[in-house]
Amino acid sequence: MRNLQYLDMSANKLSGLIPQELRSCTKLVYLRINDNSLSGAIPLSIGNLVSLQIMFDVSNNKLTGRLPAELGNLALLEHLNLSHNQFVGSIPSSIGSMDGLSTVDVSYNRLEGALPTGRVFHNAPIRWFLHNKGLCGNLSGLPLCSSVPMMEHHKARFQYSLVLAISIPVCIAIMFLVFSVSVILKRKRPQKTTATSTRDVLSVWNFDGKLAFEDITRATENFSDRYIIGSGGMAQSTKHSFKGGRLVAVKKIHPAEDNISDEKRFLNEVEVLTKIRHRSIVKLYGFCSLPRYKFLVYEYIERGNLRSVLQNEELAKEFDWKKRVSVARDVAQAIPYLHHECIPPIIHRDITSNNILLDADFKSYVSDFGIARMLKPDSSNWSELAGTYGYIAP
C-alpha cells in the first residue's frame, strides 16, 4: 500500500517485530502501533518514512535496543511517543535537530545520558523523561550532566528530582480539591496574612522556586490600574517583571459575591493548563488561590491579542499574508493536540481573535481556557451553549 497515508493499529494484540516492509509506505504521515506486544528494536528503515508529519507512536509495547539515529530523518514529524518500552542507551542527538517536533515522550524506559540540545528539549516538561535509568540535562527536574562520573551524587539528585516531579502535581491536586470543596460548601476560612501562609498556597514552577506572592503584589502596587494590559468580564491582566528582567502576565480575578461560575472558570483554567504543554499554547507558570486574591501567572506575549493587532492600522500592515498563514498554522496545530494528544481530550470552545496572542515575531499562542471542557472517556458528553457569538462551532 504505497499510497497509504494514515495507519492506526493501536490497542490490539499484535506481537513480534515491527515489519521491515513498512519502509515501502513512504507516503505515511500518521503511524500508530502503540498498545500492543511488539518486541525487538525499531528498524533502521524507519528513517525512510520521511513524510511522517503528524504522529509516530510506538508506546506501551515491549520494544528493546537503542533508539536509531535514523529517527532524525523524520524532520517533519510533530509528535513522537516512545514511552513505556525497554529502550536502552542515550537519546540520539539527531532527534534534537527535528525542527517540526512539538512533543517527544521517552518516559518509562531504560535510557541514560545527556538530553540532546534541540529546541523541543528546551524547557520541556519533566513528565516526558521520568522513570529512566539516568537521563541528565539542563532541565528542571533532571540532574545536571557532569563530565566526571559521580554516580552517587547523580542518584541523589535524581531521587530529589523525582520527589519534586511527584510532589508538585500532588500539591496542585490537593489545592484544587480543597478549594473546590470550599466553594461547594460555601465555607469561609479566615485569611492568613503571614508571608509563610501566602507562599503555601502559591503553586510555582519554571522560576527556580523564587517566585513570591509578595513580589507580585508589591511590583504591581497591589494590582494598580497603571499596570493593566487588558481586561474583560471578571478579570484583568497586568504585566510584571521579575529580577533578571523576566516578564510575565498576571491575570487577576475580581472577587464577586457568590459568583460560582467565575470561580469555576478560574479553577477550570488552572486544571486544564497544568495538564498541557504545546509550543502554540500559552504557558501557565503558576497560580494563587486565596480568599482575597485569585490570580494566574502566564508567560508574557508582547503584542497582545490578534484582534487588537488587526484593528491597529500600522500593525495590520506589518502583519502580512505570510505571517497570517503562519498564525493560522500555529492555531491549527494546537487544536488537534488538545483534541487527540491530551488524555482526556480537551475542547477549548472559544477560539476567537481575542484568545489568540501574538509575540514580537507574530508567533501565535492559544489562550484563555476558562470555558474549556475535558471530555470524559467511555461516556456521553453534553454541555450548554458556550463561547463567543460568531465563533461558536456548528
UniProtKB/TrEMBL annotation:
- Quote the catalytic activity from the record: L-threonyl-[protein] + ATP = O-phospho-L-threonyl-[protein] + ADP + H(+); L-seryl-[protein] + ATP = O-phospho-L-seryl-[protein] + ADP + H(+)
What are the subcellular locations of this protein? Membrane
What GO cellular component is one of the record's annotations?
Answer: membrane
Signal peptide interval: none
The EC number(s) given in the record are: 2.7.11.1
Q: What is this protein called?
A: non-specific serine/threonine protein kinase
The organism of origin for this protein: Panicum virgatum (Blackwell switchgrass)
InterPro entries (UniProt xref):
Kinase-like_dom_sf, Leu-rich_rpt, LRR_dom_sf, Prot_kinase_dom, Ser_Thr_Kinases_DiverseReg, Tyr_kinase_AS
Record domain Protein kinase: where: 223-394
Question: What is the membrane topology listed in the Swiss-Prot or TrEMBL record?
Answer: Single-pass type I membrane protein
